[in-house]
Design brief:
- By secondary structure, the chain is mainly α.
- It has 8 helices and 6 strands; from the N terminus they run βββααααβαααββα.
- The longest helix has 37 residues.
- The protein is globular.
Length: 273
C-alpha cells in the first residue's frame, strides 16, 4: 500500500512570509553538521570558533553554488525574461552538486586564510556533511522535491497536496527517503571507521565520503525523473562520475603525503649529529 503524503510544504507564515518545512529541516541539519565538525575539531586541537567562522563561508557559498547550477540546468533559457529568478530559491530550488562544489571551494579558501591544512579541513566536515544531507532530504520528501519515477512498489509515495513539487496522485519512488537512509549509513560508516581512516592519513575520510556520495547519487538518478543528456546518463550522474574520480585522486594524494611525512622525519633524524 503506497504511503500518502498530504503535507503543506509551508510550515507556518510569519508576517506574511511563508516558512517552509524544507528550510526548517535544513537549519536543523546544518546545526547538527556544525556540532559534529566542532567535536572533531576539538579532538584535533582546533578551536570551535573557527568552525563557526568556516560554517558561514561554506553556507553562503553552498547556497550560491547550488542556486547557480540549478539555474544553469533549468532556467538559463528564460533568464533574460525573468532575471529575478536567480535569487528566487522558493520558485525552483537548489542543485545539490552545485552546493557541494561551492562549499568545497569556500572551505579551501577559508582553510588557507586560517592556516589550516586543506585535507584536515575536509576530514573535519565530511561526517557532518553526510548526516546533514541525510536530514535535509527529509525536507525534500515533505515538499516533493527531487521526486522519483512512477513505481508500483508497496513503499511508493503519493503526493496529494497541490503545493507539493511532485506530480499529484501518482505512486513514485521515494528517492528522497532512499538517499536519506543511504547517507545516514555512510555517516555511520565514517563514524565507526574514524580511527582507521584517520590513521591512513589526512584526507582519507573526505575521500571516503566523496566516493560514497558519488556512488549513492549515481545509482539514485536512475530512479529520478530527469532526462538523460549523454550515453543514457543524466547531468548529475556525469557530475557524480567526476566527483568519484576526484575522490580517488584525493585518496591517492592523501596516502602519498602520509607515507612521505614519516620518510621526511626519518631523514631529519638521521641528519642530526
Amino acid at each position: 500500500m503506497p504511503f500518502v503524503l498530504d503535507i503543506d510544504p509551508v510550515a507556518v507564515t510569519i508576517l506574511g512570509l511563508p516558512v517552509r518545512w524544507y528550510g526548517l529541516i535544513l537549519v536543523v541539519a546544518a546545526g547538527i553538521a556544525i556540532w559534529l565538525a566542532q567535536r572533531e575539531a576539538r579532538r584535533r586541537g582546533i578551536g570551535p570558533e573557527i568552525v563557526w567562522d568556516g560554517a558561514l563561508w561554506v553556507g553562503v557559498a553552498a547556497l550560491i553554488g547550488g542556486r547557480a547550477l540549478y539555474v544553469i540546468q533549468n532556467e538559463l533559457s528564460t533568464l533574460a525574461d525573468h532575471p529575478a529568478h536567480v535569487i528566487m530559491v522558493w520558485m525552483g530550488g537548489l542543485s545539490f552538486y552545485g552546493g557541494l562544489i561551492g562549499a568545497i571551494v569556500a572551505l579551501a579558501l577559508f582553510a588557507r586564510r586560517r592556516g589550516i591544512p586543506l585535507l584536515v579541513a575536509l576530514d573535519l566536515t565530511a561526517p557532518g556533511a553526510a548526516i546533514g544531507q541525510a536530514i535535509g532530504h527529509i525536507g525534500c520528501l515533505v515538499g516533493g522535491d527531487s521526486y522519483g519515477i512512477p513505481t508500483d512498489l508497496p513503499w511508493a509515495v503519493i503526493y496529494r497536496n497541490p503545493a507539493a513539487m511532485a506530480p499529484q496522485n501518482v505512486p513514485l519512488h521515494p528517492t528522497q527517503a532512499y538517499e536519506a537512509i543511504l547517507l545516514a549509513l555512510l555517516f555511520v560508516g565514517l563514524s565507526l571507521g574514524r580511527g582507521r581512516l584517520t590513521s591512513l592519513g589526512a584526507g582519507v575520510t573526505a575521500s571516503a565520503y566523496l566516493l560514497g556520495l558519488a556512488v549513492i547519487r549515481f545509482w539514485l538518478f536512475f530512479l529520478r525523473d530527469e532526462a538523460s543528456v549523454l550515453l543514457g546518463l543524466k547531468t548529475a550522474q556525469w557530475i557524480g562520475l567526476g566527483i568519484g574520480v576526484a575522490a580517488v585522486v584525493l585518496f591517492l594524494t592523501a596516502r602519498r603525503l602520509a607515507r612521505a611525512i614519516p620518510a621526511i622525519s626519518l631523514q631529519l633524524e638521521a641528519s642530526q649529529p
